[in-house]
Amino acid sequence: MVSRSPAEIGMSLKDVDTPALLIELDAFERNLRRLADAIAPTGVRFRPHAKTHRSPVIALRQMALGAVGVCCQTVGEAETMVLGGVPDVLVSNQVVGSGKLARLAALARQARVRVCADDADNIVAIDKAAASYDVRLDVLVEIDVGNQRCGVAPGRPALELAQQIDAAPALRFAGLQAYHGKSQHIRDFAERRQATKEAVDLTAATVALLKEHGLDCETVGGAGTGTFLSEAESGHYNELQAGSYIFMDADYGRNQKEDGTPFDDFENSLFVYTTVISQAKKGIAIVDAGLKAMSFDSGEPVVADAPEVPYFGPSDEHGRLNMEASNKTFAVGDKVRLIPGHCDPTVNLHDWYIGIRNGRVECIWPVAGRGASA
Prior knowledge:
The protein is of the alpha/beta class. It has nine helices and 17 strands. It is globular and about 70 Å long.
């Protein structure tokens, strides 16, 4: 059941019920524009990752600024995007199982749909599903450039899969997926750049090998918020897949720029809004945002307006603010903005975005793809 929205249009921010997922619209829109402007001189295509926001409303805003479509991680996410009016999706992941492949092939009758593969048997299954729906599916070979997750080894193993795709009657070889997720969160700038260079070199060598065998890569995709300019300027990637840039989170805030200062190319625009509900324990403020309101896989949230106040000890419906660590005090009923540790899974815990401008609710958007994990 979709929950009741915690706000109404025109409501003051102080009256928004909690816990709530806030978007500060001015910062959000500046982030949209900053990445579009940064990419424009490179001539590289942009395909932002919808797993960050799970919202066709946001995807269409990204496309209005030049994005060619979106990436998704699941068929369910792709269905949500297409249903919401997005005409071009890449499932930048492996899709396995006859039921999911049938849904993928059926979706290709409604929009441009592409998918990744790293396994010969899976390619056979994708071809069978595409033929059964009388569509021709674009398939990218995913290569492992350091992420150590999905992806066949670069070089000849990738060539063999590309040749298999090219020979399949219901498939078309569309290029390479070469995403290095681990590099996005390497704190030191020089180390992050070196990891990206190694990924680029592996990708470039594989592209060259494929070309030697008559296979051109229409798409060479990858990159993320932490490295996108390196891939864009490499001359080898032609499609970028950054996602978190629209919101940012506490984890990205721990990255460093070249001069050693915190990574601040984009602004925090996503917050979990919470209320102080108890002060029964001296020096500790209890808030109503815990494990069911935020993801903690990348650490605790940061108190946006008082970063010196640590958040700690989350449980299902509660979190703790340590007031003894600073001069900041909170009273029962006070409302606090938290910067989540990891934006993507935090979004998936909410049904609604509450869009705020100048302290007032301007829009309410559904998190349409919440739970679309299959």
